[in-house]
Amino acid sequence: MEFELDAFSPEILNGINCSSLPPHKLVLKVGAPVMLLRNIDQTNGVYNGTRMQVRRMGNHVIECKTLTGNKAGSIVLIPRLNLISNNETLPVALSRVTSKDGLRVLLQDHGHLEDNCTMNVFENIKLIVSEDSIELLFNSCLLQIDQNENLGNIFAPSLLTSLHLCSDREGEFFPGINKIKYEGPSSKNPLSFKWYNAEEEILGKKMKDWFRFSVAFWHTFRGTGADPFGAPTKHWPWEDGTNSVKMAKRRMRANFEFINKLGIDLWCFHDRDIAPDGESLEEANANLDEVVALAKELQTQEKKKVLWGTAQLFMHPRYMHGAATSSELGVYAYAATQVKKAMEVYFHIIYIYVFWGGREGYQSLLNTDMERELNHLARFFEAAVAYKKKIGFNGTLLIEPKPQEPTKHQYDWDAATTSNFLRKYGLIGEFKLNIECNHATLSGHSCHHELETARINGLLGNIDANTGDPQVGWDTDQFLVDIQEATMIMLSVVRNGGIAPGGFNFDAKLRRESMDVEDLFIAHIIGMDTMARGLKNVAKLVEDGALAELVRKRYQSFDTKIGAQIEAGKADFDFLEKKVKEWGEPKVASAKQELAEMILQSAL
Ligand code: XUL
Ligand code: CO
């Protein structure tokens, strides 16, 4: 019999057109009456048997007017879905699901499923079982499964026997990855440090104390790999696709395991990336309280601390015109309230509070009162200083300059602009700067330039260690892997005598195409190794002394009595004119730039 059935080719079967079967090919025209053969949205009257009239044909949907049912006369969109799954094991019933109400799952052996477990049913489907619910994640959308429903549409029972059971990730998030150790430059193990040796002493300080490395929570734990042209690429195994407080807490545990395994003691975050925003300020604050309480507990237990924390004043649409520089008074007040809450709850867990003004700037000067906005920004910072003092928070306040992106022009353009702003408004003693390397290059400077500008103004507070791509003009936030750049950065840090209580925060993300959990480790390892090489190179330069000598010699004409008079501001123009007449044409020495470059290279 089977053999005989096989003898009919699909072409012949498709050609059968009889009254009891729907035709193989349905040609629709505008105005044609049709009947739906599947349940799409029963509550809205779009179900198996609904008669409709076609109004318009789109590439992906058909617009129809319903003729029968409880919502007759309404306009509905019917998706033109392919009913045949191209994943052989993916049940057709599931592939048809367009809303969570439409899903039915037969949990034949639910008795065997442990509570609090997550199962990867397929690549894009996860089943999460907890005490009071069973949830299904389908392409990261949460579908709640009602166990009491009549199990009509079926998940093939055989699938359940092949489910891979795993824990709810309250324990180990990075199984198989041990604590990263220093193995030296000859090691070929990607999960080892080749240069960063935490306890090794360089120029009188342990490496770990020069760097005070930190993991940026937003990139490492909230980065999805999405870009303006493409969907998320990262699906970390501990994520359940929700933005719940429960998920936020699990992610926090993952963060502590991650920094522990990397041998890092610090991390950085925004309020809204550690805890979900809420429908109201009260709800958002309650979420933050709950997650921070866990972070505090874990910090104490693991002896970790936050390098810097901040409030996210750029993501929510309310901040579209700015936060402290918004044209709307209510937004200014909301931003103040958010910073106030952040300061209160971070108080005991952070070293530094950072202000980054992604929306503090303008898109057009035609509709902008720049003077007023800058005055508002200064008032906002003054109020933050006052509040910090009021509550007795004695951490450092930093401003992180960035010239643009997302705003066309950001007021904290670069280190020089920001220090001028601080001076103008009498805030210079209250704030320092958080220099980010990719922001430096966006402003047309090198990171070394920005660090030197901050350093000579006594404003170097912290470094957001990352880099851009020389061929790309935006903030790509890559892990810094250029040994020469790292050496220049460390020249400034060593000249500054270190940056504690600041440190090096990896404000850097994996490339979109790197999606393995292991990549998170590798990226931080190479970032840490690169900075360690930079430090070691600076130690060589310091011991060698040739570069410092070159610079000293270059200015030696000022190491004289008259040079000292000039530097002390005691040489007026009449005096200098008298000297020029006495000396005649000055001799000018070579700048020795290539020699300086040769000396630097000998240390790399
Ligand atoms: C944006 C940036 C931010 C800040 C914190 O370019 O660097 O992540 O570091 O808001
Ligand atoms: Co940054």
From TrEMBL:
It catalyses: alpha-D-xylose = alpha-D-xylulofuranose. The gene is LOC107479354. Belongs to the xylose isomerase family. Keywords: Carbohydrate metabolism, Isomerase, Metal-binding, Xylose metabolism. This is Xylose isomerase. The keyword Lipid biosynthesis does not apply. One of its GO terms (biological process) is D-xylose metabolic process. GO terms for molecular function: metal ion binding; xylose isomerase activity. SUPFAM superfamilies: Xylose isomerase-like. Pfam families: Pif1_2B_dom. Its EC number is 5.3.1.5. Transmembrane segments: none annotated. InterPro entries: Pif1-like_2B_dom, Xyl_isomerase-like_sf, Xylose_isom_bac, Xylose_isomerase. NCBIfam families: PRK05474.1 (NF003998), xylose_isom_A (TIGR02630). Residues 11-55 form the DNA helicase Pif1-like 2B domain.
